[in-house]
């Protein structure tokens, strides 16, 4: 089997058996291509590569001052590929077993304060209406922001929601996360009211929950890019002094939940994290905020 066949078989395995997303497949493919391009004419076959080849590659990436997270992601893809070659294609051993990667950088997530979050949530219905917009667009945008803060969704999960995924009797959402794993998350009362108001104004009864202005039913689902752009628009109308992405709203949801007494396991379930260690970073944010509050308020903190 040629190297190209090995890669094709691996990506097909990820797509069919692991149900990998398009983005994940693209990242894996990019990681493999990047190594091949770096090796150039010296690359003969994936099965001929040695641990020393990957040590040199690691050194080159570090010389380029790539972020540790980027380096680790590339090597995670390479390791996954070689694991496939060992278990499915008869390769004796992975040359990556001996490679020691740089430890991940611990960066605490950036989150909004409660007052900043409230300001952002109020903006869509306070701004002067855009004459080019349909009457229900501001209501839709308010519902989107409320839902981000209420349920901690990823932006990809939010735009994938259909009307049938929202149960207004039990006040819950059915969400399909990474690996198409299903979870049920609650909808807060403010988000519920915003959703109902939007659905009524936009006459959204089936199909995608969040729609755009396109009249073609097959093209009405709001895109990730559109959500990112509307968030930027509303952010510009506030006095919040830093960039806010949909993922930072997810960070804010998790941190505020812990600030107000939620246990870590519950937050893990709400976020759809496979590992508790992924959720634990928010405890560091909460402790840091507690320390800042203590330092600012206690007369003998200095």
Describe the 3D structure:
The chain is mostly helical. It has two domains: 3-89, Orthogonal Bundle (DNA polymerase, domain 1), CATH 1.10.150; 114-296, hpI Integrase, Chain A. Helices cover 56% and strands 4% of the residues. The chain contains 13 helices and three strands; from the N terminus they run H-H-H-H-H-H-H-E-E-E-H-H-H-H-H-H. Strands 1-2-3 form a three-stranded antiparallel sheet, with no helix packed on it. Strand 1 (166-167) and strand 2 (172-176) form a beta hairpin. The radius of gyration is 23 Å and the shape is globular. Belongs to the 'phage' integrase family. XerC subfamily. InterPro entries: CB, DNA_brk_join_enz, Integrase-like_cat_sf, Integrase_catalytic, Integrase_recombinase_N, Integrase_SAM-like_N, Tyrosine_recombinase_XerC/XerD, Tyrosine_recombinase_XerCD. Residues 107-295 form the Tyr recombinase domain. One of its GO terms (biological process) is DNA transposition.
């Amino acid at each position: 089997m040629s190297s190209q066949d090995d890669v094709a078989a691996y990506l097909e395995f990820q797509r069919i058996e692991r149900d990998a997303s398009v983005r994940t497949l693209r990242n894996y493919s990019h990681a493999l291509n990047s190594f091949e391009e770096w090796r150039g004419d010296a690359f003969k076959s994936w099965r001929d590569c040695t641990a020393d080849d990957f040590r040199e590659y690691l050194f080159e990436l570090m010389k380029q001052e790539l972020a540790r997270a980027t380096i680790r992601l590339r090597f995670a893809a390479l390791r996954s590929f070689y694991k496939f070659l060992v278990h499915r294609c008869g390769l004796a051993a992975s040359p990556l077993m001996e490679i020691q990667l740089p430890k991940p950088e611990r960066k605490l997530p950036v989150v909004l304060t409660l007052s900043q979050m409230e300001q952002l949530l109020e903006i869509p219905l306070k701004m002067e209406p855009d004459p080019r917009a349909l009457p229900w667009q501001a209501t839709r945008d308010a519902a989107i922001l409320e839902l981000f803060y209420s349920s901690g969704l990823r932006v990809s999960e939010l735009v994938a929601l259909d009307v049938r995924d929202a149960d207004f009797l039990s006040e819950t959402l059915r969400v399909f996360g990474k690996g198409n794993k299903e979870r049920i998350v609650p909808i807060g009362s403010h988000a519920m009211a915003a959703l109902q108001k939007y659905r009524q104004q936009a006459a959204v009864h089936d199909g995608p929950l969040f729609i755009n202005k396109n009249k073609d039913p097959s093209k009405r689902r709001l895109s990730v890019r559109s959500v990112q752009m509307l968030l930027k628009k509303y952010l510009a109308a506030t006095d919040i002094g830093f960039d806010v992405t949909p993922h930072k709203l997810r960070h804010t949801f998790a941190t505020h939940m812990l600030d107000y007494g939620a246990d870590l396991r519950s937050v893990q379930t709400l976020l759809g994290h496979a590992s508790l260690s992924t959720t634990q970073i928010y405890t560091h944010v909460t402790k840091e905020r507690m320390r800042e509050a203590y330092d600012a308020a206690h007369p003998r903190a200095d």
